[in-house]
TrEMBL record:
Protein name per Swiss-Prot or TrEMBL: SLC25A27 isoform 1
Organism: Pan troglodytes
Subcellular location: Membrane
Solcar repeats: 21-115, 125-217
UniProt topology in membrane: Multi-pass membrane protein
Keyword vocabulary terms for this entry: Membrane, Repeat, Transmembrane, Transmembrane helix, Transport
Gene name per UniProt: SLC25A27
Amino acid sequence: MSVPEEEERLLPLTQRWPRASKFLLSGCAATVAELATFPLDLTKTRLQMQGEAALARLGDGARESAPYRGMVRTALGIIQEEGFLKLWQGVTPAIYRHVVYSGGRMVTYEHLREVVFGKSEDEHYPLWKSVIGGMMAGVIGQFLANPTDLVKVQMQMEGKRKLEGKPLRFRGVHHAFAKILAEGGIRGLWAGWVPNIQRAALVNMGDLTTYDTVKHYLVLNTPLEDNIMTHGLSSDLVGSHKAIQ
């Protein structure tokens, strides 16, 4: 074995396979975030579906008949009537979606920045390149994740059918994938992809541009180096900024 190959084997995995490491780390971070916030997403969806179902049945009297009012009462009602773990009902397709979407967009953005666009002579990455790279990464990430996004929405709609007293269409996530594929073919898994990628392009234009700007500032103005820790800190700061907004 040659010396370069031996040295490469001694490198950390994040340096030997940077793209795969970036995808896995982004996917893990997205999974943790989704598990932490999914009860809020479920509660919001229940409120929306409850209102639509009540309007369909009762018209103007829907407000008085609604079993849940407000986020807190809705969450407490789900816990009391269905159990605490039901706050995470349907989390599997959401995790699938975020792993593919977050991992795909981050790997794409890093590739565009380092290989396609490149940095300027002073190692600075211009803002206009960050904007274009962020939009393109969002488009590619969302396009890859569209089948999982579709299944997530379809699974959430099952709650509406249950409220309306209709039979459920899917037995689980994998059955939903199989049924959509059987009924619509491969193209059926990408239904609604155009508005989805348009939204993702705008969202990532802000998210990834801010992330890259924060990371560049930290590398230049602090003792931090351009590594996984700095990437994670930049992501946390961007996420905190969005939460405050």
